[in-house]
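FAQ

Q: What does a record look like?
A: Structure on top, sequence underneath. For example:
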């Protein structure tokens, strides 16, 4: 029976493993460990923690590795690290040594210590080559995640392919989610979609991934400027992560909602998601992410404190080798300095962003953040073809972000941007709407061409307008140039 339990664990058949454990009359220390692993991956975190603590108490020191994983899922990073510190890796079997070093690396990576995580994973790999393929797959997946975090996408791709080949059904879901994350950052949306769809087919085998899956879908939609489906995906991720007590996933999903709210100037939604995110901060890396999104929100309100927040985030990411984040935050700093008319500082931030982008190989999908940074895009548009910072420019045919604006005139009047109620914050908004109502197909006074996006129609007493973003916010295409 005990051998059958171990076999179920190694094959990822955790439901069967949990049933086998419950059928044992006198479980040994290792049986408690395997039972704890099964319940952890089934989402029964409290029971998993109790079984793993029993395994440790009964003498299975290797169970501390899985207990650390359990504690990390609950956001208890200090407690997880104390479990790992109690182990002597040199005295452990190759399998447990590799997994212990891998778990330590994951903790370091989530705390922002990317270089330290990479070093631990190199050591973990040296042990993993003497263990079974499933352990090698787990370590390879973590190596890939850290490599992608450092911007080494070629290395990440190779290790993810290895990890997928040797993973069981459960672990393959995590590998596919990692592949989706990497492809999304590179703008390879078809590859990311395929990985997400593959993960979705097998997600029932891996209940712990149920919150991470919609978060990855949210990032996929967000990177393409699809705000409505991104918002729904992030909300679902928040709900599931909160329900399953996964504070880290909930935190990043809340920040996704913050970014969407900031982009359309929805102050109420922005404030709510930031307030929830603040109480979920458990690591310096999470604090840096919060500083980034809070800084962007403050800049949107023309609050100079936003510059301080963005500077803090940039300093942290640069010090800890988080090059992807460095590029994104520097683009936001460019926007911040432009808002306050500091052209020299804006140009310097843009130059630093270009340097970081080139360090990553110039493959990063910058539209992920540039879509909401109007002044940064304008500054890029003024650069001559030979200027260095033009490496940050996207393809020439990149479409501007488009919003669907509804003016509700029946019942309670409202302005809805992408389905979300907003206040009348835009300059000459009413005049612009009246102009469109009169013109139907407006001719732009600036370029003397008919607008392709400024059409207006009545739908059940609701005025519907397609708009793009300019330096003052969302405006009808071309007509905005007449209303500055």
């Amino acid at each position: 029976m005990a051998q059958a339990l171990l076999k179920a664990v190694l094959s990822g058949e955790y439901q069967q493993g949990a049933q086998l454990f419950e059928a044992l009359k006198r479980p040994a220390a290792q049986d408690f460990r395997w039972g704890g692993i099964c319940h952890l991956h089934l989402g029964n975190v409290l029971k998993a923690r109790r079984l793993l603590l029993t395994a440790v108490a009964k003498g299975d020191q290797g169970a501390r590795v899985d207990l650390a994983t359990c504690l990390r899922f609950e956001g208890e990073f200090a407690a997880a690290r104390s479990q790992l510190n109690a182990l002597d890796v040199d005295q452990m079997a190759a399998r447990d040594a590799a997994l212990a070093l891998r778990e330590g690396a994951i903790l370091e990576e989530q705390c922002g210590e990317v270089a330290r995580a990479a070093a631990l994973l190199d050591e973990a790999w040296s042990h993993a080559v003497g263990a079974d393929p499933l352990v090698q797959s787990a370590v390879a997946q973590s190596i890939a995640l850290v490599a992608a975090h450092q911007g080494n996408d070629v290395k990440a791709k190779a290790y993810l392919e290895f990890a997928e080949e040797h993973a069981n059904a459960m672990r393959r879901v995590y590998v596919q989610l990692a592949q989706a994350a990497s492809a999304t950052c590179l703008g390879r949306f078809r590859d990311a979609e395929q990985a997400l769809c593959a993960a979705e087919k097998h997600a029932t085998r891996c209940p712990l991934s149920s919150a991470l899956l919609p978060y990855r879908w949210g990032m996929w939609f967000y990177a393409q400027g699809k705000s409505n489906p991104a918002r729904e995906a992030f909300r679902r991720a928040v709900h599931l992560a909160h329900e399953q007590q996964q504070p880290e996933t909930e935190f990043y999903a809340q920040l996704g909602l913050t970014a969407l709210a900031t982009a359309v100037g929805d102050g109420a939604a922005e404030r709510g998601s930031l307030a929830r995110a603040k109480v979920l901060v458990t690591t310096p890396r999470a604090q840096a992410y919060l500083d980034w999104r809070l800084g962007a929100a403050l800049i949107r309100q023309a609050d100079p404190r936003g510059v301080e927040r963005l500077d803090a985030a940039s300093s942290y990411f640069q010090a800890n080798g988080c090059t992807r984040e460095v590029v994104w935050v520097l683009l936001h700093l460019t926007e911040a300095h432009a808002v306050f008319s500091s052209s020299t500082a804006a140009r310097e931030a843009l130059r630093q962003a270009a340097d970081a982008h080139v360090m990553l190989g110039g493959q990063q999908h910058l539209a992920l953040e540039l879509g909401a940074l109007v002044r940064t895009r304008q500054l890029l548009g003024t650069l001559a073809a030979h200027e260095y910072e033009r490496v940050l420019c996207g393809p020439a045919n990149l479409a501007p972000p488009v919003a669907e604006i509804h003016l509700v005139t029946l019942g309670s009047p409202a302005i809805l941007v992408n389905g979300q109620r907003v206040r009348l914050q835009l300059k000459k908004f009413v005049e612009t709407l009246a102009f469109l109502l009169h013109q139907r197909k407006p001719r732009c006074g600036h370029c003397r061409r008919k607008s392709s996006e400024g059409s207006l129609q009545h739908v059940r007493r609701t005025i519907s307008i397609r708009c793009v973003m300019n330096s003052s916010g969302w405006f009808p295409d071309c007509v905005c140039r007449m209303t500055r």
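Q: Is there anything notable about this one?
A: Residues 396-402, 440-484 have pLDDT under 50 and may be disordered.
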